[in-house]
Design goal:
Layout: E1 12-18, E2 23-32, E3 35-44, E4 54-62, E5 68-78, E6 85-94, E7 100-101, E8 104-105, E9 116-128, E10 131-140, E11 149-157, H1 159-167
Antiparallel strand pairs: 1-2, 2-3, 3-4, 4-5, 5-6, 6-9, 7-8, 9-10, 10-11
Length: about 170
C-alpha cells in the first residue's frame, strides 16, 4: 500500500510502501532554512541473522546548497515474545556540513546519532501500548567537533491512537 500526504508541513512523508510481509520502504522530504533534504528509510524484519534479525537503513540527502549525503544503519532484536524489550546497535556517518549554511551550523542533529561517525547500543522498553522509553549511547569514531561519548533517553507516546479511541467512542 502506498500513501501520500500533500498537506504536511515538516518531514513530509512522500511515499511509503510495504515490500512483502517483513520489509518497508519510505521517502520523506523536509526543508530547513530553504535547504532541501530527502530522507529514505528501509526496514527489514526477520532477517536470517539469529542475533539481530531486524535491520534498518536510513539515508539523508541534502539536495540543495552544497549537496551532501549521510546514512545510518542499525541491527536489533526483540528480547521477549511481545517485543516489549528490544536491544540493538547502530552505526551512523553524518557529515558535519549536512546542516551548515556557509560556516554557520543551522541545526545540531541532536538525536542519538549526532554528527560525525558514531557507533553505539540502544535498549528500548515498551511497558504499555503506544508508550516506550529508549536508552541510547554512542562513541564518536572520528574527529568531528563535539563530545566523544553521548547518552540519551527518549520517551515516546503515540497520541494518535488515544485521540482515535476518544473520537470513535
Amino acid at each position: 500500500m502506498t500513501t501520500r500526504n500533500p498537506t504536511c508541513l515538516h518531514a513530509c512523508p512522500i511515499w511509503e510502501t510495504r515490500l512483502g510481509k517483513n520489509r518497508d520502504l519510505s521517502v520523506e522530504f523536509d526543508s530547513l532554512q530553504t535547504i532541501r533534504y530527502a530522507r529514505e528509510a528501509f526496514r527489514w524484519q526477520t532477517l536470517p541473522i539469529p542475533v539481530a534479525p531486524d535491520l534498518t537503513l536510513e539515508a539523508i540527502i541534502r539536495a540543495s546548497d552544497d549537496p551532501t549525503f549521510g546514512w545510518a544503519g542499525s541491527l536489533g532484536r526483540k528480547l521477549d515474545k511481545k517485543a516489549r524489550f528490544r536491544a540493538g546497535m547502530f552505526y551512523s556517518d553524518m557529515p558535519k556540513g549536512m546542516f551548515q549554511r556557509g560556516r554557520a551550523q543551522i541545526f545540531w542533529n541532536g538525536d542519538s546519532y549526532a554528527l560525525g561517525k558514531r557507533v553505539g547500543p540502544s535498549f528500548r522498553v515498551a511497558p504499555f501500548r503506544d508508550f516506550d522509553v529508549t536508552l541510547w549511547g554512542s562513541d564518536r569514531l572520528d574527529r568531528t567537533p563535539g563530545t566523544r561519548y553521548r547518552g540519551q533517553i527518549t520517551v515516546h507516546y503515540q497520541l494518535a491512537s488515544l485521540l482515535n479511541r476518544r473520537v470513535h467512542h
